[in-house]
Design brief:
With 460 residues, the chain is of the alpha/beta class. It is built from 19 helices and 17 strands. It has a seven-stranded mixed sheet with strand order 2-1-3-4-5-6-7, with helices on both faces. Helix 11 crosses helix 12. The longest helix has 14 residues. It is globular, with a radius of gyration of 22 Å. The N and C termini lie far apart (60 Å). It binds cobalamin.
């Protein structure tokens, strides 16, 4: 039934900080729908934005899927909010077609009912889109759109009478995750734009950081792809011209065995490329770091969050500054660039803990610190429950509009002042957006073939 159904998938994301990101979520969904026999067309607002109505009119799809990655940039100062862009796109599309729309993506999973309400879109899918989108298309094309049928589709959000209902999402078995569909023109665009191609090696995050949305998007159950399948995908993107990868897993080193198996496969196949990943600063060893370096690791983004033990504990992280120090030393020993991402002002933060963290930062050599101010409060997180219990937020508030938690023992201006003082002593504390001059230097470096996020240059 689903065969010959024509589906137009649209990736809305046009944000260019820190660089334009290949729409990996959409390309996974596209691959899965194509495998089920659908005819799939992918449009990307990074280059199709102006002519999006023409694409609809030209292809006359039976259904339109919209992928939304970001709600906002999660910054307390000069926050960039992407929801109006979504509303605007939907209006433009609805003016030229009356086919059903389906929305999904990481940003969608965070505010499923609200985004259906605001946009008037017919269906949403939370969590992984591959299987549920195919099931929905099957129901749509068979005409079986009654609530009984819709109730069986994992993660589906739909209307019944005046209500918006949501089914629980279901994690996909890793063996059923097929290679994403990357057209060569899409790859060419992103290789030229940013030089970075993204690869996912596993889904799910088991950790308990109090503010984090990753378990809401991907679930807590960790599902690892085989090293063979990851290496096949790496070989494909390298054959298409890529030479720098980003492993987008929430935390790449959930399991050292998984990391080692991927690195060993890269080395066995003599693949030459460089890559970045998010690492948790705990449980690493010098041997594993050495293996990762040999397999092409060039930049590590450590999700450290704080450099002070009491704050790490109240953020729900089972790591200490000693773990952070040890992990950093392995990176330094093996000459891998590394940066620490910090969140200042979450639960338990005080002026004294910020200063303690700053003093500790001096012990970490050859690194860059990115301290973000305040914790964005997302419904469904432990932080949300705490903030509600403490009376910091109210039930009737709209959390789509960013609300940031700041420890009652501090305020935003004081944190900013302290960060400025830290920066004056330690230039590797990067507290502001990249300046236009620095951005043009970085673009110049990319043109000269320097690869990666290039934040190692920000400390100079
Ligand atoms: C890796 C990552 C990065 C890397 C990306 C590197 C790269 N080259 O790709 C870096 C560090 C650069 C980065 C930057 C940013 N990121 Co980021 N990032 C992630 C992370 C960890 C994974 C994203 C990913 O690739 N997932 C893998 C793909 C396959 O999954 P997916 O896109 O979710 O797709 C699946 C489903 O969502 C669904 N789906 C997707 N599309 C569709 C469409 C339809 C129709 C359907 C039905 C289903 C569907 O099916 C897909 C397959 O199962 C997520 C958190 C997370 N765990 O999801 C944050 C996340 C996406 N990032 C986020 C943000 C905010 C940002 C920044 C704005 C931060 C900043 N201030 O700079 C920038 C924006 C970058 C940009 N230009 O857009 C937020 C977005 C939500 C929000 N709060 O607004 C997230 C969710 C983290 C968070 N804080 O909550 N990020």
């Amino acid at each position: 039934l689903i065969k010959n159904t024509k589906i137009l998938l649209i990736s809305l994301n046009r944000y260019d900080q820190p660089y334009k990101v290949f729409p990996l979520g959409m390309s996974y969904v596209a691959a899965s729908l194509q495998k089920c026999g659908c005819e799939v067309i992918m449009a990307d607002c990074n280059y199709d934005f102006e002519r999006i109505e023409n694409i609809v009119v030209q292809h006359q799809p039976d259904c339109i899927g919209i992928s939304i990655r970001n709600i906002d940039d999660v910054r307390i100062e000069n926050n960039t909010f992407f929801v109006p862009e979504l509303e605007h796109l939907v209006k433009r599309l609805k003016a030229v077609t009356s086919v059903p729309f389906v929305i999904g993506g990481s940003a969608y999973s965070l505010f499923p009912e609200r985004l259906i309400e605001i946009t008037g879109i017919e269906y949403g899918i939370t969590g992984e889109g591959e299987q549920s989108f195919a099931l929905l298309i099957e129901s749509i094309s068979s005409g079986e759109l009654d609530a009984d049928q819709l109730e069986t589709i994992p993660g589906l959000v739909y209307r019944k009478d005046d209500q918006i209902l949501r089914n629980p999402a279901q994690a996909i078995d890793p063996g059923k995750i097929i290679q994403p569909l990357r057209s060569s023109s899409m790859l060419d665009f992103y290789i030229k734009e940013s030089s970075v191609v993204n690869i996912q090696t596993q889904r799910g995050c088991p950790f308990t950081c109090c503010y984090c949305t990753y378990p809401l998007i991907e679930g807590r159950a960790v599902r690892k792809r085989s090293a063979q399948s990851v290496a096949d995908e790496i070989e494909q993107v390298i054959a298409a011209g890529a030479d720098y990868l980003f492993f987008v897993d929430s935390v790449f080193n959930i399991s050292n065995d998984h990391v080692a198996s991927i690195c060993e496969e890269i080395l066995k196949r003599k693949i030459t490329c460089q890559w970045s990943c998010f690492l948790r600063p705990k449980g690493l060893t010098s041997d594993l770091m050495k293996l990762m370096k040999l397999a092409g690791l060039s930049h590590i983004e450590f999700g450290s969050d704080s450099l002070c033990d009491s704050v790490l504990e109240s953020y729900g992280k089972d790591i200490t500054f000693d773990d952070i120090y040890e992990s950093s030393e392995y990176a330094r020993e093996h000459r891998v660039h590394y940066a620490h991402f910090l969140i200042a002002g979450g639960p338990g933060e005080t002026e004294a803990t910020l200063i303690e963290g700053f003093e500790n930062s001096k012990k970490l050599r050859k690194t860059v610190f990115f301290p973000f101010v305040g914790m964005r409060i997302f419904p469904g997180t432990a932080l949300f429950s705490k903030a509600m219990k403490d009376g910091f937020i109210k039930q009737q508030q709209d959390f789509l509009d960013p609300v940031f938690y700041i420890s009652p023992l501090l305020d935003q201006a004081r944190i900013r002042k302290l960060h400025e003082e830290f920066k004056a002593q330690m230039p590797n504390w990067v507290i502001d957006d990249v300046s236009p001059q620095m951005k043009s230097i970085m673009d110049g470096l990319r043109k000269k073939g320097v690869r990666g996020p290039l934040w190692e240059f920000l400390a100079r």
